[in-house]
Structure formats: C-alpha cells, structure tokens
Design brief:
five-stranded mixed β-sheet, three-stranded antiparallel β-sheet, about 25% strand
Length: about 190
Amino acid sequence: MRTVLLALMMAIFATPAPSQTLKPGDTLSITVLQDPKLDRNVVVDPLGEIAFPLAGRIRARGLTPLAVENMLKAKLKPNYKDDALDVTVALVSAPKDIPEEDLKPKIFITGEVLRPGPYVVRQPTTLMQAISLAGGLGPYAAKKRIQVRRRAPGGDETIYVFNYRAYEAGADLEGNIALRAGDVIMVPERGFFD
C-alpha cells in the first residue's frame, strides 16, 4: 500500500521534465522507504545545498533530482543493513524564473520629477501623462530639454527631445509623443542659463 501511495504522490508532485536541474528555491520531496521518519520536503538553500539527516549537507544546485537521489543513497547506505536502499527524490515546486511584475510593460522616468521610477503602462500613454504620473516636474527641471529614449529591437536608440515650455504655450504639440514599453524619460536638472 505504501508503494502505491508513494507512486501516486510522485505522479502528482513530480514535474514533467525529469532532466530539470535544481536551483536555489526548489523544493524537493525526499522519501526513504526503509525509514519513514526521514521522509520530508527540503528546500535548496541560496548556496545551492540541501541538509538531510544522516547525510549532512549535499550540493544540489545544477544537479537533477535523480543525481541527488543517487548521492543520498550513497551517503545513507552505511547506516542501513539492507543493500537495496530505496530513496526517492522528486521536485515538488520551483520558483518562477521571472516575477510576474517584471513581465508587465513599463516606462521609466528619471531626473527632476517628484516621483521618479518605473511605471506600469496598461493603456496608451503620452509623455505629458507620464510626467503627470510621476507627480509633475520638479522645481529644478530643465523644461526645454526633456528626453525620451527609445531602444529599438536591434539595439539602436532613438532620442526624442521635448520642450515643455513650448508645449505649455501651445507651440510643440507634436512633441507629446505616445510612449512605448521600455521608454526612458529623462528630465535633466536645469543649468545656469536655462
């Protein structure tokens, strides 16, 4: 009965990619058939190791669950008389490689604005709307030299210069461009003659 239960648990929790290598944050389910007191879930620590009773610390980063299983068998074998020691290691969960927040489209606002930083853009946003999201221009902003830097997929960068003062006067309406994910808005500090 225990073997059937063990097989069922492995089928539920095991990942479909048995050759996946382990990394910090992965959770392993370890079962020792000869000693159920040792059954437990362990997490691969930031150093890439796991700790297991009677085996000590084992480097798991970069190994497959099967390789960790073989290492555990070798370390536990001297403690048991049974030559056919049965140890099973299954990957229960792995951390997401990319946090969901990093997948959302963002623009980045830096320099003389009240709240610089990344901003998620869920709908079409113009340069003026983005400046408003950042709390507006700071008291020392160079209003005539605001830049939008846009990197193309090939790596080339395009720089758009925006004159906020001209926009306020109704002269530079085309400068209020629609932004794209990844755009960086730079609001420089005004110089002595600005």
